[in-house]
């Protein structure tokens, strides 16, 4: 095991990579000066700072040029793997052939990233996407320091931090700042269509209540540890596999699923976690990785010492999988979060979601081909549901031109043009744009966002607590 003071060729390459990325960023300075002199102030009313970018989602916010956002971005982070990977991604966006961005990064390295950022404060928005343990402390300090925050999920991974979350949102409200959770799945076309359909009484009827053993809502989110992002292998930091730093399935990816349940079934409504949420059951289990598999996805030849407690023999038990069942205003939902090591050939991450109504079931499957189906509960209801669906689709032409209905016998498929298949990575820019609109006009921020965010994290952390009562070696 390498001692902390050792230096190697790998370290040299890493440092050179940082220098190269910074030089590439600085190469845009002259054009920046011209832009500052020629553009109106409104063109740069948003000034970004990035804090400790330990997750590739931090870079995806900047994958495209963002209107009204200054191209000069200040990055505060310790010199190391996470920073290097972040700079490489931004450099890749700047140097691609099609629609290159022109981000100019001012990089501030050191171990006091948060304190220095708040002391210098060259921007009015901080982007945070990295280690989830202690993330709420960084958000809280940023908001208390007068900075708006655009933050990747999850904000908390344990119920013990819930009071900090509530205090942070209260402070943001009092200071007239916006602290916003990056909920990308709200921008996915199949999810948006599903939301429209389950809230159409003619198509769906009313949501059923279901039960713990027969839920009215089911969602499954399947991810893979080894994957490609923006055309390159997504090398994950070793700490990603420490659930104390990254969190587990239910409290991490589960954040998206709980958010969707609230957003879809009770749109524009305030959820009160004290009386509307009842977490019923949970489960957790590991994905087992060999040392070679770990090296392939992290570049590290050995398991770090902090993972020793989950190493059995020569394999790592990574407790990234989870399941939970809960009732939201009496409507029962079951959520499964699954992490496999690698997708089969031609496969990838998938998302399955279905909602049971009194007239039909509305089902979404996101895989290689994204599908939306409306399935009448009884053959006798088909004509009625089809007519209502055709009427609904006609009304959706304003929002989603080109959406259509195909009769597939026992199923009715809602189709949409390929232009809507923009993918997960594109959704980060869409969320950021929505966030910037709220910054410019805070009155546009929905009143339900704050209470529903509290309800979301109350649900996920309680679900994890339930999971610890039911831990298994496999699913």
Can you describe this structure?
The protein is of the alpha/beta class and 475 residues long. The protein folds into two domains: 9-130, NAD(P)-binding Rossmann-like Domain (Rossmann fold, 3-Layer(aba) Sandwich), CATH 3.40.50; 186-468, Dihydrodipicolinate Reductase, domain 2 (2-Layer Sandwich), CATH 3.30.360. The protein is built from 16 helices and 18 strands. Strands 7, 10, 11, 12, 13, 14, 15, 16, 17 and 18 form a ten-stranded mixed β-sheet that branches. Strands 3-2-1-4-5-6 form a six-stranded parallel β-sheet, with helices on both faces. It has a two-stranded antiparallel ribbon with strand order 8-9. Helix 1 packs across helix 4 (81-95) and helix 8 (189-198) runs parallel beside helix 11. The longest helix has 20 residues, at 449-468. It is globular and about 70 Å long.
Q: Name the CATH homologous superfamily of the largest domain.
A: Dihydrodipicolinate Reductase, domain 2
**What CATH architecture of the largest domain do you see?**
2-Layer Sandwich
**Rg of Cα set:** 23 Å
Unreliably modeled segments: 1-14, 23-43
Regarding quaternary structure, how should these chains be classified? single chain
- Helical percentage: 25-40%
